[in-house]
Amino acid sequence: MVVNKAVKQGCMWGCGLMTLVLVAVVGTTSWYAVRMTTDFKAVKEGEERLLSQVKADSAYVEDRRHPPAPERVEAFLAVRRGLHERQLGMEQAVADFVSAGGVKESGPLGFFKGLRAASELAPIYAGFWEKRNELLLQQGMGPREYSFLYRLLYQTYLGHDPADGSLAPAGPVGGAVPSHRLDAGIPAPVWEGDPAQLDSALAEVRLELEAHYSPVTNRLETLFEEPGSP
Predict the structure, then answer these.
(1) Cα–Cα nearest to 165, from 192, 204, 205, 128
(2) For residue 103, which of 22, 114, 125, 184 is within the disulfide window of CB 3.0 to 4.6 Å?
(3) Contact 193, 65 (CB under 8 A)
(4) Which long-range contacts (CB under 8 A, 24 or more apart) does 24-31 make?
(5) Reduced to 3 states, what is the DSSP secondary structure of residue 177?
(6) Tens of pLDDT along 172-214?
């Protein structure tokens, strides 16, 4: 997926806004928090349906020695295809936010402006997760399997950085530097099998996998409400 400069810069803001969204949902009683809570209610309900119907996922065991079965790779790709339009919408929303200058004020005023911006992006975040959970349910794939395949295929196999989407501003030059990682405790899976075997099994879908990767949505892909989820 081709991502322009504004969208790449948006990765750093998207993560910050994500934090504001979560803080607002669980910790305030403002109008914005009520609005965001409503947006995320459908996400929670969708995940509950997913977990209740894909019961085998609770016992899913990562296999780092054998390539995933072709039918599970195809199921994963079906989810990725179905999320494509949501990815584009997320990238555009973040790019628009960055182009408008983001939220730069400090203090209470800056916080509430950030909260307002987060509330405007909340339906887009929520829509992304809601669609993902719906697609996972259609494919009979739970959070654990999806999270492992995402990390194995995009980070271990294709080599994408787990920190994509977690950048912070580097000052007036407009660059960016790596920042904290929400998923710092979940590094890319270490492949314990034959590298040639993994490459051979996935070579035919490599280009399609790449086409459905977005550094903007990377940090959102495997976030789930359920504490037991990855």
Answers:
(1) 128
(2) 114
(3) yes
(4) 24/115, 24/118, 24/119, 28/115, 30/115
(5) strand
(6) 333 333 333 344 446 788 899 999 999 999 999 999 999 999 9
